[in-house]
Amino acid sequence: MSIWNPPRLLDQAVLSLLRDEALAISALEYLPIELFPPLFMEAFYGSCRETLKAMVQAWPFVRLPLGGLMEMPHLGTLQAMLDGLDVLLSQKDQPRRCKLQVLDLRNTGQDFWRMWSGSSVQVSSSSLEEPVAKKRPRTHQTLGPLEVFIELHINGRTMDGFLAYLMRWVEERKASIHLCCKKLKIESMPRDNIMKILSMVQLDCVEEVRVHCTWRLSSLAVFAPLLGQMSNMQRLLLSHTDISTLEDQEEQHVVQITSQFLRLHYLQDLFLESAFFLEGCLDQMLRCLTNPLDTLGITHCLLTNSDLIHLSQCPNISQLKGLDLSGVTLTYSSPKLLPGLLEKVAATLQELYLDQCGIMDSQLEAILPALSHCFQLNFFSIRGNFLSMAIMDKMLRHTSALPSLCQELYPVPQESFSSLGILQMGRLAQCRAELLEILKDLGRPRTIWISSSPCPHCGEDTFNHPEPITYGSNTSA
Fold first, then answer.
1. What residues have CB less than 8 Å from 7, skipping those under 6 apart?
2. Which of 160, 321, 427, 450 has the most neighbouring CB atoms within 10 Å?
3. Whole-model pTM?
4. Degrees (nearest 5) of the Cα angle 101, 106, 111?
5. Which range marks the domain in which residue 55 is found?
6. How many CB atoms lie within 10 A of CB 157?
7. pLDDT at res. 7
């Protein structure tokens, strides 16, 4: 079945019902299922709160994707919905027509509304039936816990009105509401406030977490067990920027934090930014990983030779597809450590970031043999390092046989700078011309990107203005 334009009769029926809210509410018991979504949409956009409240109690689908209708969180609409749910939850048995099990406040479900409103989307008849729950026996069924899905972004010292109202409502109904969150982002809020909010969330629902905090290590250690309760977490980014003086019992705090990884059996992607507490004890965290990672980022922190040795020996990094060590100073590390690490992951590595690592010619030359065996590599960035034209020539030749490599970001060659470290645009133009000649000599279409820091256009210490050097018909970059 295809729906290209909403039937005029359906539109007229919806508008007619909403002219009289009392009539619309009384008709819900007998209203055809096909009319529920378009009626709900008209009631939502027309702010017919009593109709919305009543429709929640008779919703004939398992899921109500309310977030797909809200460009911005709307407190009034939320209050009407929750009032309707209160009536529903107060009943011992679920009403005959109501199949509602999930209220989804995330920005999803647009396809559901398009499908049932009759917009110009082709859908099959089976798709029309999917949102409806399987037929149940005629006897009333006990109402189980209602799942409420949200995308939780905790920032600021206080919650916005929408989130604060929802949290108060959930807290008063813990026994009958499961608050679920697949993606969780935490930043710039006192630890105790965050812990109170998370106490109302079903933590085993969380799959992706981003934590940006400036807490003392002792505070992070108190918070860490909550991460351990997120047993289905697949992706974790932890940015900890507190570099205050050492605390008493620091080793105990590190153990408290790293031991939580023992409970994360589904973790695939791990990013640790500015995690200075890992210096000299990275092995503690690595030992607690329970399964192979797909992506590992350890950035903008200090690692010792011992840390790098343990990293290269860790069995759970042998299948990495992505490795990011940007901002980890490798200037004084043993020249054998980074090559050993790349050899460990060469068979699977697809993305490699070594930006601002203090890498110089001798260190880059040491990794070229291992780099040339990363046949799955498609992205390589080594910006912000001080490299000569001679070593960049060698690097381009060593990587020219990598069949998947399509995005390459390099620093401005050191010959482009004056003795005072000032970028000379004329010298840069000459280096670019020489790099293009190297690409021509290698003989295959290829694009590389050259990025200076600081940027000569805006003066910022960023990589926002990389410029391409292209040979041949390569358009993938």
1. 118
2. 450
3. 0.86
4. 80
5. 9-117
6. 8
7. 52
**CA torsion, ordered 73, 77, 83, 87, to nearest 10 deg:** -110
Residue 225: in which H helix or E strand, if any? helix 217-228
For 59, which DSSP code?
A: -
79 falls within a domain:
yes
In a domain, 110, yes or no: yes
**Mind listing the pLDDT tens digit for each residue in 355-370?**
999 999 999 999 999 9
Q: Give, in order, the Cα–Cα distances in Å from 191 to each of 161, 240, 252, 304.
A: 20, 13, 19, 30
The answer to whether position 231 is within a domain reads: no
Q: Report DSSP letters for 171-212, one per residue.
A: HTTTTTEEEEEEEEEEESS-HHHHHHHHTTB-GGG--EEEEE
* DSSP result, 265-282: TT--EEEEES-GGGTT-H
Give the count of domains, the chain.
1
Per-residue pLDDT band at 174 (split at 50, 70, 90) = confident
Which DSSP letter does residue 107 get?
S
Peptide bond into 454 cis (omega under 30): yes
Question: Largest Cα–Cα distance of the chain, in whole Å?
Answer: 86
For residue 9 the two structure tokens come to: 């009769």
Q: What DSSP string describes 396-458?
A: HHHHTT-TT--EEEEEPPGGGB-TTS-B-HHHHHHHHHHHHHHHHHHTS-EEEEEE-SS-TTT
